[in-house]
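This entry is passed on directly below:
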Amino acid sequence: MSLHYVALGDSTTVGVGDPMNGSSTTDLSGAGARPGEGWRGWASLLADSLASSHRVTFSNFATSGATVPVVATEQLPSTGDGPIDIASLIVGVNDTLRSTFDAGQIREHLYQCAEHLTARGAVLLTVRFHDHGKVFGLPRWLRRPLWQRIEQVNLAFDDLHARYGGIRLDMADYPEVYRRDFWSIDRLHPGERGHRKLARAFADELAVRGVRIDVPPDLDCASRPPSRWADAVWMVREGGPWLGRRAHDLVPWAARMALTQLRPPRPRPGPLALPASSHSEVRRIEA
């Protein structure tokens, strides 16, 4: 049996955080794998596992930094118009990190992708995102508005799943998502363990739905999670500059959101109260 698997999304689906050389270092721009070695990642691991039982054609159109509109307008047209058996659509986190965030536009483009892919026969693979701010250890004033944006993306994926079906993983259901060894050094992309867990979870769900998988993705990891020293060095060299570049976009917005939430709500104006003499006058006129 042959299977055509198409992957759409951002750097997580590219495989950032899981370099083929086994290194535990990477950065937010997607650099870090040695030249010529590149990234592996959960989608490639899943495709390899499917290939243990089927003739698999795997096309990965994901790009680092992609937002939902980029997936819909650039990646989706590249998939052609032929039959698809499995299609993964995991994107949206980059949208939450920009001042141009538009929940309505995100929903519209996600529906465009899902309708096109499922019309071609694809089983849709999606996720419900966890609280990224908790993983980053962000202060509560910044974490809360970021989570509100992530939840808006999640609600769009909820509706998508209800309408088009497929397989959806709720990342918050996996306790290891909040463990350090799940993530690469930047804590934004899964490390080898995270990518393997994601591939295995999708493979298990596909198997439940009758897709034969003789060799499921291996959960054993060759790399070790970053040490505290590596974390500190990375933060100085890579994380700090990245946060500086994002600060002009995110921090003012988050500060406004935090102030809005701290302000007590304005009382709603009630009905206009008339003086007692006015009430008497009204009764007299009605009489």
Q: What stands out?
A: Confidence is low (pLDDT under 50) at residues 24-36, 272-287. The beta strands are 2-9, 55-60, 86-90, 123-128, 167-170.
